[in-house]
């Protein structure tokens, strides 16, 4: 079976408020970053499936005749994408050599890739192809790298199979899919996230798919079109952590102390709603210092709640302390337990203050950069629209 070559990208994300609480049915506010994951899918003729994941040092190849035996006998095209096919997951775990325990970085990425590949192509002839992925995002640091990866996989595999169109024409350098196709990409990306996260809310893959700022509640996605331009400083504490482990840690705490944790989750929900209200006011009336004071206080309160949930880390405490010494307010973003934090910069925050803060954070051993937010969701690219150094990595054998 011959498939079309595809080049796609999807953005990472920062969660302003609602991480973890969103897994338990509360509101989250999330925004895309201008840091992206790129995926290049190429049809080949060798009868192999190859995957190159240089960010995580994973380069694998399988014979298609071997892979065919992994497909469950009663596997067909599945329309219900809220649950994984347990039989396919079990067979794949055996195939990649994990029978129990938590998957490592490489196994998670491999399993989600093979799961999506076999789900998309399993009911027909398996195509010979090579998939290469390169990301500007740090892996496993709270910026939605798993979701950007899953969204790229879903878009590229569905597009290569012909299940969705190829929106790129001869005169555009980038193109986006229509709403219905984006919904399909998002639901397949959610399957990839389920393999990596265990029990994802779906907020990260929604941002990777649609981009911009979103309000997310129990699978319902509302794009926020009128939002002020926020200046955000991103800090990576470089403390490794796993979203899957942290999500299950919070769940255990909720099960152990339901009456204590329920009000905390309700309060985070109220923080997200209050933040949304403040952001909306900032677009409909003149922005004042009071708006920023409120946004900063919401960061502080939420950071305390996240510590109560057990997803803080001494490195994140250091981030909050060092930035507060410069009058700036921070919180963790994503799953916590290390990884990244966000610091709100006020319009009047001078570049001298930003530079001094960045230096102090670097002195703590952290990576730190001012970033713009609101990057577009998943896109198809013509090669000319992708930076040469990225293309070079994607095309390396
Ligand atoms: N560029 C990439 N190439 C291959 N696999 C990746 C890539 N980026 C992420 N992954 C997969 O996603 C996993 C990290 O997912 P995880 O959910 O723990 O972190 P995150 O998505 O960066 O943070 P968060 O979920 O808190 O936003 C990695 O272990 C790997 O399996
Ligand atoms: C921790 C979490 O809320 C956000 C991870 O970016 C998990 C999820 O929503 O799936
Ligand atoms: Mg993730």
Automatic annotation (TrEMBL):
Location of this chain's protein in the cell: Cytoplasm
Record's keyword terms, sorted: ATP-binding, Cholesterol biosynthesis, Cholesterol metabolism, Cytoplasm, Kinase, Lipid biosynthesis, Lipid metabolism, Magnesium, Metal-binding, Nucleotide-binding, Steroid biosynthesis, Steroid metabolism, Sterol biosynthesis, Sterol metabolism, Transferase
GO biological process annotation, one example: isopentenyl diphosphate biosynthetic process, mevalonate pathway
Domain GHMP kinase C-terminal intervals: 293-356
InterPro entries: GHMP_kinase_C_dom, GHMP_kinase_C_sf, GHMP_kinase_N_dom, GHMP_knse_ATP-bd_CS, Mev_gal_kin, Ribosomal_Su5_D2-typ_SF, Ribsml_uS5_D2-typ_fold_subgr
Enzyme Commission designation: 2.7.1.36
GO-annotated molecular function: ATP binding; metal ion binding; mevalonate kinase activity
Pfam families: GHMP_kinases_C, GHMP_kinases_N
A GO CC term attached to the entry: cytosol
Listed SUPFAM superfamilies: GHMP Kinase, C-terminal domain, Ribosomal protein S5 domain 2-like
Residue span, GHMP kinase N-terminal domain: 122-207
Broadest EC class assigned to this enzyme: transferase
Main location: cytoplasm
Pathway terms, separated by semicolons: Isoprenoid biosynthesis; isopentenyl diphosphate biosynthesis via mevalonate pathway; isopentenyl diphosphate from (R)-mevalonate: step 1/3
Gene3D superfamilies associated with the record: 3.30.230.10, GHMP kinase, C-terminal domain
Key word Transferase present: yes
Recorded catalytic activity of this chain's protein: (R)-mevalonate + ATP = (R)-5-phosphomevalonate + ADP + H(+)
PANTHER family: MEVALONATE KINASE
Similarity annotation: Belongs to the GHMP kinase family. Mevalonate kinase subfamily.
Function: Catalyzes the phosphorylation of mevalonate to mevalonate 5-phosphate, a key step in isoprenoid and cholesterol biosynthesis.
The protein's name: Mevalonate kinase
């Amino acid at each position: 079976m011959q498939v079309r070559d595809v080049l796609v990208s999807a953005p990472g994300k920062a969660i302003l408020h609602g991480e973890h609480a969103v897994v338990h049915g509360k509101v989250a506010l999330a925004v895309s970053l201008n840091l992206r994951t790129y995926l290049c899918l190429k049809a080949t003729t060798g009868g192999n499936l190859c995957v190159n994941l240089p960010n995580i040092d994973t380069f694998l190849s399988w014979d298609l005749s071997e892979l065919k035996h992994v497909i469950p006998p009663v596997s067909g095209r599945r329309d219900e994408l809220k649950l994984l096919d347990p039989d396919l997951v079990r067979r794949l775990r055996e195939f990649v050599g994990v029978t129990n325990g938590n998957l490592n970085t490489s196994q998670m990425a491999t399993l989600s890739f093979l799961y999506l590949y076999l789900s998309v192509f399993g009911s027909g002839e398996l195509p010979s192809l090579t998939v290469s992925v390169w990301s500007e995002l740090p892996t496993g640091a709270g910026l939605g790298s798993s979701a950007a990866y899953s969204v790229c996989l879903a878009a590229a595999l569905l597009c290569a199979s012909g299940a969705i169109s190829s929106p790129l024409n001869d005169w555009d350098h980038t193109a986006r899919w229509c709403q219905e196709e984006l919904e399909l990409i998002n639901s397949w990306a959610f399957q990839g996230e389920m393999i990596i996260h265990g029990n994802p809310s779906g907020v990260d893959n929604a941002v990777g798919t649609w981009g911009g700022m979103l309000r997310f509640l129990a699978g319902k996605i509302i794009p926020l079109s009128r939002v002020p331009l926020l200046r955000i400083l991103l800090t990576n504490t470089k403390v490794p952590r796993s979203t899957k482990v942290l999500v299950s840690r919070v769940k255990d705490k909720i099960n152990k102390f339901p009456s204590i944790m329920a009000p905390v989750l309700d309060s985070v929900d109220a923080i997200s709603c209050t933040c949304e209200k403040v952001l909306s006011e900032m677009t409909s009336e003149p922005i004042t210092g009071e708006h920023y004071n409120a946004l900063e206080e919401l960061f502080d309160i939420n950071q305390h709640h996240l510590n109560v949930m057990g997803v803080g880390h001494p490195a994140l405490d250091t981030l909050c302390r060092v930035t507060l010494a410069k009058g700036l307010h921070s919180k963790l973003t994503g799953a916590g337990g290390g990884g990244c934090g966000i610091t709100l910069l006020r319009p009047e925050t001078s570049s001298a203050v930003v530079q001094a803060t960045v230096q102090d954070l670097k002195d703590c051993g952290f990576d730190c950069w001012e970033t713009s937010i609101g990057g577009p969701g998943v896109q198809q690219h013509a090669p000319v629209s992708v930076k040469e150094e990225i293309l070079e990595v994607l095309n390396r054998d």
